[in-house]
Amino acid sequence: MADAHAADTLKLLHIEDSPLDHDLALAHLRRAGHRLQALRVDSEADFRRALVAQEWDVVLSDFNLPGFTGLRAQEILKDSGLMVPFILVSGEIGEDTAVSAMRNGATDYLLKNNLARLAPAVEHAIEAGQERRARQQADRELAASRQRLSELAQHLQTSVEMERAAIAREIHDDVGGSLTAVKYDLAWIGRHVGSPEVQQRVASALETVDLAIEASQRIMHNLRPAILEQGLVAALQWMASRFEKRNGVPCTFRTSHETMQLPVGVPLVAYRFAQEALTNISKHAAASKVSIDLSLTRGVLSLEVEDNGRGLSSADLAKARSFGLRGLTERAGTVGGWVDVSSGAAGTMLMLSVPVNGGLGGMRSDTPRFDDDADHDPSTWGAP
Ligand SMILES: Nc1ncnc2c1ncn2[C@@H]1O[C@H](COP(=O)(O)OP(=O)(O)O)[C@@H](O)[C@H]1O
Ligand SMILES: [Mg+2]
């Protein structure tokens, strides 16, 4: 192993009050084939100075020096954040001291009467240090890459919502406007023709137009829930009662406030959260009771959706092709919130929390328009 290091100069900082012991240590290392650049220090001040003066491969330290100790040196090294391996070398080190030094992060310890172990100990310490640095670097890269991925996912969630809003608006303006015009014209024709045959055709065409209007309203609603214009509370109320009707499962909705002042973007995130939670309940939970709780306390909006169904496991959450719950977490992140999942034999509880005081820009009522143009109200057209 010595060969691997022989080519490099080993930069060694030695805390040692005895020049003789210092020379002895150097001799052992040279004999093992190391080229050395070594500095001996014997006081705290000199040690601190040496630490910042240059980079070191390893710190060797005596245990007891006049006015300084190896353990103190170790603390200083630890506090410095420098990841230099630290080896205690002492004449009188006891087992207890050695153990506490190792616990404190010393890489190794050895006795002065066993310096034959010095070179292997130094080599091992340096390798371990390199591995540790590589691991830390990998951890940092992994964390950065996770962060980028999460930013991308949040960006995608946001752009999907914007795209949906744009499509809903186009359906409203282009399709909706034309269908309404056709409906008026048909009604006019119906009033102005005498032939019962034509009137019947007109009536049937009107029915078809009504179906088309209904369909596009449904599509628009799925794209962009118009009900949110009446506020989050009203939207959740509506969602709960629709869930109950469609699934035949009682679904209660409770709220701490009848209206809430929420920052822009939060109502939609909360709405999508409840939507996914309820869809999951009808798909997976086999529940007989569902409750939705909305509250705003101490500046934090909480939305809880709870069922008494079969519960979910961590394996369910890790399903490769399931993005519902993962998407909710990223979505919550777009407004500075987070999602908690808890589950057991008694069912599943999903909770969205969003701090809503400060840091999110201007507060608005929870009935923001989808855009600033009051003419675009997708909930109103098609009803002559
Ligand atoms: N309320 C629930 N009760 C029981 N299991 C659930 C519930 N919600 C989710 N799960 C389980 O967690 C998995 C992941 O959910 P999700 O991320 O929404 O993906 P998906 O619904 O597309 O499968 C589901 O496949 C299901 O097994
Ligand atoms: Mg789902």
Our count of helices gives 11
CATH class of the largest domain: Alpha Beta
Strand portion, in percent?
15-25%
Q: What is the CATH third-level topology name of the largest domain?
A: Rossmann fold
By helix and strand content, what is the structural category?
alpha/beta
Bound molecule types = adenosine-5'-diphosphate, magnesium ion
Silhouette: elongated
Q: Helices and strands, in N-to-C order?
A: HEHEHEEEHEHEHHHEEHEEHHEEE
Distance from N terminus to C terminus (CA atoms, Å) equals: 89 Å
Number of strands: 14
Tally of individual domains:
3
- The CATH superfamily of the largest domain turns out to be Response regulator
Helix percent band: 40-55%
Describe the structure.
By secondary structure, the chain is an alpha/beta fold. It folds into three domains: 2-135, Rossmann fold; 158-223; 232-365, Histidine kinase-like ATPase, C-terminal domain (Heat Shock Protein 90). Helix content is 52%, strand content 19%. The protein has eleven helices and 14 strands. The protein has helices at residues 2-6, 19-31, 44-53, 70-80, 95-103, 118-192, 196-223, 232-247, 266-285, 314-317, 324-333, and strands at residues 9-15, 35-41, 58-61, 64-65, 68-69, 86-90, 108-111, 251-255, 261-263, 290-297, 300-307, 338-344, 347-355, 363-365. A five-stranded parallel sheet has the order 2-1-3-6-7, with helices on both faces. Strands 8-10-11-13-12 form a five-stranded mixed sheet, covered by helices on one side. A two-stranded antiparallel ribbon has the order 4-5. A hairpin with a 2-residue loop joins strand 10 and strand 11. Helix 3 runs parallel beside helix 4 (70-80). The longest helix is centred in the middle third of the chain and has 75 residues, at 118-192. The protein is elongated. Mean pLDDT is 88; it is low at 1-6 and 359-384. Bound molecules: adenosine-5'-diphosphate (ADP) and magnesium ion. Residues 280-281, 283-285, 307, 309-312, 316, 319, 322-325, 348 line the site of adenosine-5'-diphosphate. Magnesium ion binds next to helix 9.
